[in-house]
Design brief:
The chain is an alpha/beta fold. Helices cover 47% and strands 9% of the residues.
Length: 835
């Protein structure tokens, strides 16, 4: 008994194992067949609905091996026969496009997308089914800022069925921002099959079906559109009748359509390269939108929430329950005009009372308040209800500001869809209109925190402080769009000028493209610990080569700009322009550009170079670079002294009385006039300086020489140049003294016109006691004596220590008859006593 029971169990186990194996094989076969589809696998293990009329068009029946794939593109299409305000390129997608990277799609040029909501089955039952990727696709496109429309693949054969399809779509798109038309895709299933094909509708009935769908979606504010191929539009529909009321989406897979009817969209190909647009399928449909600039719909999703509307008003719940379409219809037909609140974010009565500009314009026309909020108010950041302020919500949630920027609608939709259910955001819906929490650093997916701090930027930038004092989003947007190009410093720890100046490899790569330096630091430099501050006015490893010549021996960028502020002010830290200035102008002007080389010193130091180059400073620079450095010539230390200066002119050597360095140091007028041209300076000394009595060297003073030697004074008088020449020709050889008598005269003159006045006159006594005389004649002993004889004696001035003319007059009254009151006569009477 036991053995039999065991045998039975074994047989059952075998049977169960066989069933299990069969199931596994079946599943694998389904997955394999699914993966053979042209448009790739769906998420998970979703089984394709063969009742889907689009199945067969997308099921991979075509051979899509690598050798047979042929792609089409927008570039192949000609739209010249269709005028519009703005031509846009887009795609239409469904579950058959698989996974989609919508950001990649946008970067690839997708400007709009029309997304399938669902379909009506192609069998007689005509059951409506959902596109399994609808939610994922529409949210992804919206998040990528791609305008969207939607379509349903219809198989409706009656007007009520068309309305059912419309209602189905309306429920599915509730809450989404649908900015393009809602479309009835009116075509036969693959291979001219399906319930629509089998119905053999007349042109009038088929047109009525499409019209019913469009009328329904348009009754709640959307724009209706009919999709059909050229043949369907020409032969099965009254296309122009539909075009007068709705929009037309033409399907015509040619490079230039010859369809002459009215249309707004053109599906030009079904074989676009899907991977180009971030899709895992092989192909994708390509579409043109001939945008006429008119709004395609009124978006009530901003002000209508069916659940809120039903929960707030009992009469509506009693009448419609929670039927989305019925509630929306009531809202459009009656609710707005009655001023009913239909969502938490907008209350028309609050809006009216809060904004007097609107109250004075619209009065009690409640629909106008809705329209204003939808079209203007939300984008202006106006508060729509007592329960919710979009400005507050934005300012209090830095994570959302990083994601949404200044797009108030995104904040609003975030709160409506999820924010109101997040406890952390409960206290952010009001109270922060004028207070910003945190600081935004994210812009278009890039984190700028390494180079941007709103507080710092505001305090150090007048534009930000005046225009965006409490708007970090706009401040960051300005920084990225304008500030980075201008080189604005937006945080304490990063100066783009320093970053550029400190990194020669980056200067070579980016030149003056300042924005690239910021991006490099964000992406690479930060992790490399590169220097970011401290180099605003200097450069690390500056260039020294200009037009294949290396000027490093005579040029250093940092020294040049630090010592030539006009250059720094003109060119900043543009190392190329600064070096160019030095080569073109600085060298000719004799500007010093490095600590170790001074061209004026180099010139002063070497007479052979002065003889060769004169005042051509650039040649001295070039000589040092080519020869002088190698010869070990001295390049500094003689800035103010010329070595080996010339002293000879016309065969005469003036060196006993002349030293160039002494002369220009003590005669700045000469130095300023002749710019230290040693030849011209010598010529000045010879032609003017000697005659003017200018001292030409430390060891010879012409006044002292004149004062010391009375024989020379008797011979040359006031002709000072002759004293110089006497010393050159004779005095030096005679060992005559040339200094030390600047303030005294040796053997001053006492005899004038044959009369010796020495008994009553001493030169040194006279000038010491008569400063007016000294000031007038200095050390001119002849002029001083003449003053005494012609003036001083008559005035009774004492000429020496021993004779006082007044006393002499008083002592000799007998001379009065002869001399009278003329004091000079008394002087002369006294002198007679010495004859």
């Amino acid at each position: 008994m036991t053995d039999k029971f065991v045998t039975i169990l074994k047989e059952r186990r075998k049977a169960l194992l066989s069933v299990a194996i069969l199931l596994v094989l079946t599943v694998c076969a389904a997955i394999f067949a699914y993966n053979k589809m042209s448009n790739g696998p769906l998420n998970g293990f979703a089984v394709l609905e063969k009742n889907d009329p689009e199945y067969g068009k997308r099921d991979g029946s075509k051979d899509k091996s690598e050798t047979n794939i042929t792609y089409d593109s927008f570039a192949n299409k000609n739209t010249s026969n269709k005028a519009c305000k703005s031509l846009k390129k887009g795609v239409d997608v469904s579950v058959y496009q698989g996974n989609i990277d919508w950001n990649k799609a946008k970067k690839a040029g997708v400007q709009f997308a029309i997304i399938r909501v669902g379909y009506r089955g192609k069998t007689a039952a005509g059951t409506i089914g959902a596109d399994k990727n609808f939610k994922k696709n529409i949210q992804g496109a919206i998040d990528a800022n791609i305008p969207v429309g939607v379509y349903i693949f219809s198989q409706a054969t009656t007007q009520p069925e068309a309305v059912d399809e419309a209602n189905y779509v309306l429920e599915k798109i509730a809450g989404y921002k649908i900015s393009l038309p809602v479309v009835i895709d009116y075509e036969y299933a693959s291979g001219n099959t399906g319930r629509l094909y089998d119905a053999h509708l007349s042109k009038e009935n088929a047109t009525a079906v499409c019209d019913a769908f469009c009328n329904r979606v348009e009754s709640v504010g959307y724009t209706g559109m009919v999709y059909a191929n050229a043949s369907m539009l020409k032969n099965q529909l009254n296309a122009e009748s539909l075009a007068k009321k709705h929009r037309i989406w033409l399907a015509n897979y040619v490079n230039k359509t010859s369809y002459s009817g009215t249309y707004d969209f053109w599906q030009c190909s079904s074989t676009g390269k899907a991977s180009t647009y971030g899709m895992s399928s092989t192909y994708v449909d390509l579409d043109f939108w001939f945008d006429d600039g008119e709004k395609v719909r009124k978006d009530y999703s901003l002000v209508f929430d069916a659940e809120f509307y039903a929960n707030k008003y009992k009469d509506l719940r009693d009448a419609f329950g929670h039927n989305y379409v019925a509630l929306l219809q009531h809202f459009i037909d009656y609710g707005m005009s009655e001023g009913r609140q239909a969502c938490i974010g907008f209350d028309p009565q609050f809006y009216r009372n809060k904004y007097y500009d609107l109250l004075s314009t619209y009065g009690l026309d409640w629909e106008k308040y809705y329209e204003h909020f939808i079209n203007y108010g939300l984008n202006e950041g106006r508060q729509g209800s007592a329960q919710f302020s979009v400005k507050s919500y934005k300012n209090a949630n830095v994570d959302l500001r990083n994601e949404f920027g200044n797009d108030y609608e995104k904040y609003y939709r975030h709160y409506m869809s999820s924010g109101q259910y997040e406890p952390s955001r409960t206290n952010t819906v009001t109270g922060y209109d004028n207070t910003v929490v945190g600081s935004v650093t994210m812009y278009k997916g890039v984190d700028y925190s390494k180079v941007f701090d709103f507080g710092y930027y505001k305090e150090h930038n007048a534009t930000i402080k005046s225009k965006y004092p409490s708007n970090d989003v706009s401040a960051l947007e300005y920084f990225v769009g304008t500030g980075m190009k201008n080189g604005d410093q937006a945080c304490e720890s990063f100066s783009v000028k320093s970053y550029k100046n400190a990194n020669r490899d980056l200067r070579n790569a980016y030149g003056d493209d300042l924005k690239s330096y910021y991006n490099h630091y964000i992406n690479v430099g930060y992790n490399e610990n590169r220097i970011t501050t401290g180099y605003d006015d200097k450069i690390a490893n500056p260039i020294t080569v200009y037009k294949k010549v290396d000027y490093k021996l005579v040029y250093d960028f940092n020294y040049y700009v630090q010592h030539n502020r006009d250059v720094l002010n003109a060119f900043g830290c543009d190392e190329n322009k600064v070096l160019e200035h030095f080569v073109k102008y600085g060298m000719n002007e004799g500007r010093q550009a490095i600590e170790t080389f001074n061209v004026k010193s180099y010139k002063n130091r070497y007479s052979d170079l002065r003889n060769a180059y004169g005042d051509d400073y650039k040649k001295y620079f070039n000589h040092y670079m080519e020869y002088g450095y190698k010869e070990g010539r001295v390049a500094t230390g003689n800035e103010n002294a010329v070595v080996g200066f010339i002293t000879k002119y016309n065969g005469v050597d003036y060196s006993p009385v002349y030293d160039y360095n002494y002369y220009i140091s003590n005669n700045p007028d000469v130095a300023n006039t002749f710019k230290k041209d040693e030849t011209k300076v010598l010529m000045h000394f010879i032609n003017y300086g000697m005659s003017e009595g200018r001292q030409g060297c430390e060891r010879f003073n012409v006044i002292s020489y004149k004062n010391r030697y009375s024989d020379l004074r008797r011979a040359y008088g006031k002709d000072l140049k002759k004293y110089y020449m006497h010393y050159i020709n004779y005095g030096k050889a005679e060992g005559r003294l040339t200094t030390g008598f600047e303030t005294q005269v040796v053997n001053p003159l006492t005899t004038l016109d044959g009369v010796d006045y020495s008994p009553v006159y001493d030169y040194n006594y006279y000038i010491k006691n008569n400063p007016d005389v000294f000031n007038a004649f200095k050390y001119d002993d002849e002029a001083t004596l003449r003053h005494f004889v012609n003036n001083g004696m008559n005035e009774g001035r004492k000429g020496n220590e021993t004779f006082n003319v007044s006393e002499y007059k008083d002592q000799h009254p007998e001379l009065y008859v002869k001399c009278g009151n003329s004091l000079k006569n008394y002087y002369m009477e006294y002198l007679k006593s010495f004859k």
